[in-house]
Every structure is written in structure tokens, then in C-alpha cells.
Amino acid sequence: MQIETYAPPVGFTPHDRKSPLTDPWEPLYSRKADRAVILGVRAGPAHTNSRGFVHGGLIGALADNAMGLSCARASGHTGGFVTVSLNVDFLGSAFEGQWLEFDTVFVKPGRTLAFAQAFVTADGQPCARANAVFKVMNADVRRTA
């Protein structure tokens, strides 16, 4: 089955942060604002569950990603952020073919913790909101062994 591809909305470009988790969800897009990184994706078959809804795990993971990147952008901190707490409330459904946008609307960076809130929309309609707390790391956090 051939899936139609659509250009992202104006201002979105291919997302420059790649990860093994998000590779199957490509293409991902982002738009950078003063204090936020807004992520976007056109929902396709790889994003849905068996009922045809966009999977809540994808929504949670991309909201977490957008909020962490936004904390880094708002604070200018380059050491990294690790999620301490993540809460997602599902407000509506999202379906294949819809444009999903993950917009961080609040960031409170601190010395040791950062707080963020994001709203997720599907074709402009709210489908989720997320809140997260991140631990501010002093160095790039990666598993070394």
C-alpha cells in the first residue's frame, strides 16, 4: 500500500536529532522557537496501534523528547537532561494521515531540575497534554559499558 506523503507545515524542517528509538517513526520534523523545539510528524502506519489510532506510547515518547529539547534550548545547558517524571493525559484521538505537533508551552529550567509542559495536537485539535520533570546533568549522559 502506497502512503501519500505531504510536506510539513511552513517552518518545519527535518529533525536533526536522530535516535534508534525514533528511527522507525521517520520522517520527523522540528521547528525551533526562542525557548522551545516543536516536533511534528505526519501519522503513518508505523505510528498506529491495531485499532488505527496513533499509539499513546508514541505520543508520550515524542512529547518527552520535545520537552527535554525545549528545556535545553530555554536554559542553554548542553550537558543533557534525563527524565525523572512524565505524565501524559490523552484528551482526544489522533489518526493516520493527521499532522501531529508537540509544542512545549512552559519551561522552568533550574540548576538541578527542569519542569516542562507540552500540548499535542492532531491537525490543530488537542489530543494530549504532558508534564515532565528532568534532572539537569553536568555531562553528556550515555551508557559507556
Q: Figure out the total of helices.
A: 1
What's the total number of strands?
7
Which homologous superfamily in CATH is the superfamily? Hotdog Thioesterase
For this structure, what is the CATH class? Alpha Beta
- Average pLDDT: 90
Radius of gyration: 15 Å
Biggest sheet strand order reads: 1-2-3-5-6-7-4
The CATH topology comes to: Thiol Ester Dehydrase, Chain A
How many separate domains?
A: 1
- Provide the helix percentage: 10-25%
Report the major sheet. Answer: 7 strands, antiparallel
Given as residue ranges, the uncertain stretches (5+ residues, pLDDT < 50) are: none
Order of helices and strands: EEEHEEEE
Beta content comes to 35-45%
What structural class do you assign from the helix and strand content?
mainly beta
Indicate the overall shape.
globular
N-to-C terminal Cα separation, in Å?
42 Å
From the 3D coordinates, which CATH architecture would you assign?
Roll
Description:
The protein is mainly beta and 145 residues long. It has a single domain (13-136), classed as Hotdog Thioesterase (Thiol Ester Dehydrase, Chain A, Roll). Helices cover 14% and strands 38% of the residues. The protein contains one helix and seven strands, in the order βββαββββ. It has one helix at 56-75; strands at 13-14, 29-32, 37-42, 81-90, 99-109, 113-122, 125-136. A seven-stranded antiparallel beta sheet has the order 1-2-3-5-6-7-4, with helices on one face. The longest helix is centred in the middle third of the chain and has 20 residues, at 56-75. The termini are far apart. The model has no long low-confidence stretch (mean pLDDT 90).
